[in-house]
Specification:
Blueprint: H1 2-44, H2 48-69, H3 75-93, H4 97-118, H5 122-125
Helix pairs in contact: 1-2, 1-4, 2-3, 3-4
Length: 126
């Protein structure tokens, strides 16, 4: 009887960890998209001082999130995004605001694509 209880507890633990991991994945990528949209809107409204602040905040925020995500997901999928975010920051620093808007669009689309690739689903398992 103790073995059955132990097996059930282990199974429940595995499922719980998996669900929490998927929730964290979606929350992280939703946050990335929200922060990118905010930078894009600030750029369009020509509020360049806030764009610079939000760009640095996004870079630091993603570095922290990346460390967490790399524990459970393929590094290449996560590593690509830091390059795009650093490129966005470079455009902000060099005041290439047309490229900031382009880069924001690219990050949003890439983030949406990556979250679909990393989500546990039947099509991704097969």
């Amino acid at each position: 009887m103790a073995r059955i209880v132990t097996a059930i507890l282990i199974l429940i633990s595995i499922i719980t960890i998996g669900v929490l991991d998927q929730v964290n994945l979606h929350n992280t990528f939703d946050g990335l998209i929200e922060k990118t949209v905010e930078i894009e809107q600030l750029t369009m409204s020509e509020d360049y001082d806030d764009v610079a602040i939000k760009g640095k905040e996004l870079l630091e925020w993603w570095r922290h999130k990346r460390d967490i995500l790399e524990i459970t997901y393929p590094h290449d999928e996560i590593k690509d995004l830091i390059v795009l975010i650093a490129q966005l920051d470079g455009y902000i620093v060099s005041m290439q605001y047309d490229n900031v808007i382009y880069s924001c669009e690219f990050i949003k689309e890439d983030a949406a694509n990556k979250v679909n690739l990393l989500t546990f689903s039947f099509k991704n398992v097969m």
